[in-house]
């Protein structure tokens, strides 16, 4: 009985690790696509990593914004052209799965903007797997 229990626990632990490893790569791929979209000046495609919901939460220096459309409008207002957007680079510091379908990603962001001056900071993203798709449900960038 102990062997069966140990074998079962080992199987579930390995399966959970494999799932997290695969999901980690999916999330990192989405962040790569977002970076490419941003660097192409395409805010709409950048936003594809976010949850299209009124419950999306974005926390920045201006406070809390709710909703996908409000977040998109804010990005368009604050980054109206390619010079404002600059070239985005993410440095991922932590990818932590809090539960099977929830992940916290912490990192640094940097915008190289020769005409307007470079800016950067840190971010934390809460990801949730919704209907089989990883999406950012909360973004805190400073």
TrEMBL record:
<dbReference type="Pfam" id="PF14534">
    <property type="entry name" value="DUF4440"/>
</dbReference>
<feature type="domain" description="DUF4440">
    <location>
        <begin position="30"/>
        <end position="136"/>
    </location>
</feature>
<feature type="signal peptide">
    <location>
        <begin position="1"/>
        <end position="18"/>
    </location>
</feature>
<keyword id="KW-0732">Signal</keyword>
<protein>
    <submittedName>
        <fullName>Nuclear transport factor 2 family protein</fullName>
    </submittedName>
</protein>
<dbReference type="InterPro" id="IPR027843">
    <property type="entry name" value="DUF4440"/>
</dbReference>
<dbReference type="InterPro" id="IPR032710">
    <property type="entry name" value="NTF2-like_dom_sf"/>
</dbReference>
């Amino acid at each position: 009985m102990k062997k069966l229990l140990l074998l079962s626990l080992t199987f579930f632990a390995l399966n959970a690790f494999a799932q997290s490893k695969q999901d980690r790569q999916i999330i990192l791929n989405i962040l790569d696509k977002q970076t490419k979209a941003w660097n192409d000046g395409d805010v709409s495609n950048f936003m594809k990593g976010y949850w299209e919901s009124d419950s999306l939460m974005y926390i920045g220096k201006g406070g809390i914004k709710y909703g996908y459309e409000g977040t998109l409008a804010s990005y368009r207002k604050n980054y109206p052209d390619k010079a404002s957007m600059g070239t985005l680079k993410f440095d991922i510091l932590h990818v932590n799965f809090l539960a099977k379908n929830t992940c916290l990603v912490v990192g640094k962001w940097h915008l190289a903007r020769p005409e307007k001056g470079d800016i950067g900071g840190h971010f934390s993203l809460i990801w949730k797997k919704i209907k089989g798709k990883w999406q950012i449900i909360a973004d805190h960038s400073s």
